[in-house]
Design goal:
single chain; mainly alpha; 47% helix; 0% strand; globular
Length: 90
């Protein structure tokens, strides 16, 4: 999901490394290490993960979809289905 987020278009290698580290923290959280939640929230807030974060950071993102894209059509697997599978669903 982050690779397609508009705010990542200008990310450098170090930003992607931070995302990799954060993904490991998220994995630890899903394995039951709940103390990771605060650190994950702090890291993703710096990237503008929510509308509130983007407003605080004064980020302006393009409202219009890419040419040929249908904004109502999700790309790839539906996020709910993906989450269900990650959590052990079939």
């Amino acid at each position: 999901m982050w690779s397609q987020a508009p705010q990542t278009a200008e990310w450098a290698e170090t930003d992607w490394l931070e995302l990799e580290i954060t993904s490991r923290l998220v994995d630890a959280l899903y394995q039951g290490d709940l103390k990771q939640a605060g650190e994950i929230r702090q890291r993703t807030a710096k990237w503008g993960s929510t509308v509130e974060d983007r407003n605080r950071l004064r980020m302006k993102l393009e409202d219009s979809p890419e040419a040929g894209e249908d904004p109502a059509e999700p790309s790839g697997m539906d996020i709910d289905e993906e989450l269900y599978k990650l959590l052990g669903g079939k």
